[in-house]
Specification:
Elements lengths: L4 E2 L5 H10 L5 H11 L14 H10 E2 L4 E7 L6 E6 L5 E9 L2 E5 L3 E3 L14 E4 L2 H15 L5 E4 L9 H12 L11 E5 L3 H9 L5 E5 L5 H7 L8 H15 L3 E7 L7 H10 L5 E7 L13 H13 L4 E3 L13 H17 L1
Parallel strand pairs: 1-2, 6-9, 9-10, 10-11, 11-12, 12-13, 13-14
Antiparallel strand pairs: 3-4, 4-5, 5-6, 7-8
The structure holds S-adenosyl-L-homocysteine.
């Protein structure tokens, strides 16, 4: 498979080139693209408006990425669905469907594992395996759409992995997701979350897209951020904030700051005051997330009163703030938890067999 072309990761332009190489007319490229990204077929045989010879040629030279649903957990509280998908190489990834009044939102993974090392995050514990291909990112959305038989209107790249650490594939994913011959999701309905890889934030800004940038801030000063996020060793907090300002200047899109509240670590009055100062005057939005405790670390959630007080303090300083509703609390909600549990189970099973 490795020397075959990953046809579902080709953008329309590349598809036109491939189709030309195979001696077919350019309009056939659009048809193939629509089969893959709108009708979402998994075999060339299903592309019934194309000649048999052409389909066979594609079959010989290309393969179609298709994720396999291994498991789905459905929340009894709010209908959130957490999926575990197997990739062709045997790795597993997780994706989440959240149902809101305004539509269905899918949270996708961008990598298998992660190398950023955030202290409170389960996805990073075993490090990075590899980045996902554009097709593997897209297919998470396609498979979930098929499973529920409804349209997906919003996508957030907030699952396992650091999207800016898989930058070229991320850009292509965005292009393909928003293509009118594919799902045609509006750029405005797409959010990309990053731990703050400064050069990539600036590069993304240059593309002047209308997607929302979410920045995982989680602390009000450099010292505290460093305790939670090793990436702060590389990019100092003010550098990160400057990159976010730049993103707004270039795109006109309000930046979201994600702030996971960890009991006794970053939730004091002083933290709220410092945070207000840090982002003063920015056109932004703060999303407070009660940290989701993972069993590998002893972080705890801030209590409800503390969270409300933190929010009020920011609001009194003129900052736009919401507390993120916790979705799927009953189903291994936090990033990377389901995948970790699954991998551990597999290891135990294989030990038993051998
Ligand atoms: N690497 C990207 C996207 C994946 S993480 C990023 O860092 O933004 C998505 C969001 O979930 C980030 O804000 C991350 O810090 C947060 N997160 C991860 N584990 C968490 C946990 N246990 N509790 C609360 N938020 C968590």
């Amino acid at each position: 498979m490795s020397n075959k072309i990953d046809i579902k990761s080709l953008n329309l332009e590349e598809m036109i080139q491939l189709v030309a190489e195979m001696g077919e007319k350019a309009f056939r490229a659009k048809q193939v693209y629509q089969w893959l990204h709108q009708k979402q077929v998994d075999t060339f045989a299903q592309m019934t408006n194309l000649s048999k010879a052409f389909r066979e040629q594609m079959q010989n030279r290309c393969y179609i990425t298709s994720l396999k649903q291994e498991q789905v957990q459905i929340s009894k509280i709010d209908g959130t669905r957490k999926y575990l998908f197997a990739l062709a190489d045997g790795n597993v990834i997780e994706s989440v469907l959240m149902r809101y009044k305004h539509g269905n939102s899918v949270c996708i993974s961008s990598q298998v594992g992660c190398r950023m090392g955030c202290r409170f995050c389960a996805s990073t514990i075993d490090g990075l395996v590899r980045g996902l291909t554009p097709a593997e990112m897209l297919d998470q959305i396609y498979k979930i759409g098929q499973d529920i038989g409804e349209r997906i209107s919003n996508v957030v790249v907030m699952g396992t992995g650091e999207p800016m650490d898989n930058f070229d594939h991320l850009l292509r994913f965005i292009e393909m997701l928003t293509d009118e011959n594919g799902l045609h999701i509006s750029q405005r309905n797409l959010t990309v979350s990053t731990c703050g890889i400064v050069p990539r934030i600036r590069e993304l800004a240059e593309h002047k897209l209308s997607i929302t940038l979410a920045l995982s801030l989680h602390a009000s000063n450099q010292k505290k951020r460093l305790e939670l996020m090793p990436v702060a060793n590389k990019y100092e907090i003010h550098e990160v904030i400057d990159a976010c300002r730049y993103y707004f200047e270039k795109t006109g899109r309000r930046v979201t700051f994600e702030y996971s509240l960890v009991g006794g670590v970053n939730d004091t009055d002083e933290d709220a005051r410092e945070l207000s100062h840090l982002i003063a005057g920015m056109n932004c939005h703060v999303n407070l997330i009660p940290v989701n405790p993972i069993e590998e670390r002893n972080y705890v959630q801030s209590n409800g009163k503390v969270i409300e007080a933190f929010k009020s303090k920011l609001e009194s300083n003129g900052i736009n703030v919401t507390i993120r509703r916790e979705m799927g609390r009953d189903i291994d909600g936090a990033c990377g938890q389901l995948r970790r549990k699954y991998s551990r189970k597999q290891t135990i099973t294989s030990t038993c067999i051998s």
